[in-house]
Amino acid sequence: MADGGRPSVTLLSGEAGVGKTRLAAAAEARARALGFLVLHGESVEFGGEELAYAPFAAALRAFPEWLDERPLHERLLGRLGELAREPVLLVLEDIHWADRSTGELLAFLARNLREERLAILATYRTDDELPPHLRRLAAELARRPAVTRLALGPLGPDEVAEQLEAIAGAPVPAALAADLHARAGGNPFFVEELFAAPDAGTLADAVLLRVERLGPAAGRALAVLAAAGGRLEDDVLERLAPDADGLRAALDAGDLVRGEGGVAFRHGLIGEVVYGRLLPAERRELHRAIAAALPAEPIGRRAHQFHRAGLRAEALVASVEAGLEAARLHAFSEAWMHLERALELWDPAVPLPVDRVELLTQAGQAARFAGDPDRAVALCREALAGFDHAADPARAALLFERLGEFQFWDDEAALECCRRALALAPGEPRLLAAEGHALMGLRRWQEARERCEAALEAGARPRITLGVVLAFLGEPDAGEAHLQRGLELSESAEDTARAYVHLGEVRRVRGDHAGAIAAWQAGEAVAERFGLSSHAAFFVVNAADDLLRLGRWDEAARRLAEAARMELGRTAAPLRRAAAGELHALRGDFDAARRELDAPAGDALPSEIVAPLAGARATLALAEGDPAAAQVHVDGALAMRQDPFYTPPLYALGLRAEAELAERARAGRRPIDARRAAGLMERLDALLAGVSAPDGLAHRALAHAEHARVTGDGAPERWRAAAAAWDALAAPYPAAYARLHAAEATVRAGDRHGAATLLAEAHATAAGLGARPLQDAIEALARRARLDVAAAPEPPVGEEGPAGLTAREAEVLRLLAEGLTNREIAGRLFISRKTVSAHLAHIFAKLDVHTRTEAAGRARALGVV
Fold first, then answer.
1. For the chain: N or C, fewer Cβ within 10 A?
2. Model-level pTM?
């Protein structure tokens, strides 16, 4: 496959001793015979989780410059693709011991491999408890089409007999084979060791008997390797175990194997047994010797050895250096681990390049990017408590600013931090920008604008925040221009990622959900490239939400499943649950929706989180026929801070609940109290006064139609207006919902043909989306009114028309492919531009394309042009 330009990733798993290493070695031999370049890297047992990209670094030891270039993820993918003269097999062994950044890089490669002549084989154990990041990695990768999971199981009795006869070179008694199969549980390595030491009671006994037979010189080599984590370079091992005869004996016996540039245990279990036999004093002596013999780089290996040796001062120095280096490499999980250990070992008498306050600051930053904002806040507070603010106000101001950044979920606390910082450094442009950002989070738009513009005049770069503020103040064009300029001027990965967060937000305000998805995807690529795991999760969740709005529900479901396997922060987690719960509710899977939405949401969530969560719960209640419960969810969220973008959906849902209750009362001949509905409508109109956000206006159109249902006004024109508003936003579900009620009002007005047309359009959309509750409601109305929902408003392009396009859709697509704008298409076909937009939304969904260029290409491929 890889030889022909079909890259692949294979995850090989199994318990220790089951044969993963042998299978990997056989794969390497086969690949070399086929002309592959084979790159082999292993993780080490002790300290491997602290070595950034350890197995990749080992595999690429012949190309050290590859790991020194940034951005690493993208650069490595490109470099591997450049090796086109010969296909490449990249083997990564024992990734259960690897650092978190290795997993992120492996996931990045799996997601982005396209035509590279590259095969990746990664092995890991399943008998020990896997670290959470590896469990999530395996689950995520398993869903990728280029990824194969291969689990090795134990041998059966007959296979053990064959193994033993192959070892002995002669027949082996059946009773012995059965006994060893039972004792070893079918594990090939255990079988081999127990066969070699028939008097041993356990595997550990068998391994120790083998070691003792090899003599003290070989035992020394094995002990050194065990303390080193299972692998060492040749020159280091020769210095620590200089008796070549002992090393040769261990190699000849098969306990050790030689690889590129070093020696390793044939099986990690040998190292575990050998290390477990060592006395504490022996271990300390070995770790000290290894630390002294290791090369200067990577410093993380020496830091770990110093720590295990009990050399606190040396471990402190090395841990600080390793942490700062890992942060430079954007391996923030490993940086955090090293820096936390340095804090535990802290000794003011040890000379270091940083003081304790700076060490706390760096550890907090690493914790934040590694996805633990609570620990980041705690470390930052400890740093602030560690010095006299009056003696160093600039430093205190910087830390208060950072503390505000770390509390991104609590805008009041962030604003307080900014103001404390400004009290220490009055007029500092950067702090004015930070205050503007906190005010933005509190929806105090005009104040935020004033701070940002003051900061801009003073020389700071608050364009990223200013762009969002201007959009919410009704100037989206100017806002997006600021954000684009902010992207151009960005000097850090964090600023770039934040710019894409706000660019997606601004495009949502403009009603451009497809453009928002593009921003989220670009931001996700930046976050992956620079190890900003918390940002990456936020981008994935937001993209899923916009896919849901655009009716791309299968894509949304895939993204939400991907997000569920990620480490989500306190904002991304409830956002994912809201989107997933809403999608399940709209598709009629109420049990799955409840599982998502019944989980506690957490405290102090901003309105942009509370509103969609409450909206999803109200959607589920309405789908289950419980409008009173929907009222409760809506009322709870509306009692909080409101804004003209995230709150309007709640008003529309609240009025829908009122309409459902009113219709039930009307059917039961009970009195209807429309005062609550009127109050909701008045509040929504006031909220959106002077606002031009298309989404908010579409929700208002829907709310007005629901209000007409409360009062008993048929008002088909209100429902048609709502459908048109959602068509213009390429949002098929609410458009179909509006058409359902437009059809109901139209049939009551006596226009059965118009109702049938509306109902058929709504039914086609609901069926295409898999919106079962809506489809059921449409079919129920069709039965009551004796209308045929299968009657399409336009004839298809033929029984086997291209991609199921209607005649009008095919005509619109042909004109698009000719380069006409929406205005020109509307003039050519004597229809409105909104209708053209609606047709294009359906065309894009049917063709599974996202841009006009892609649609034009598909038109040519289908023969429409």
1. N
2. 0.67
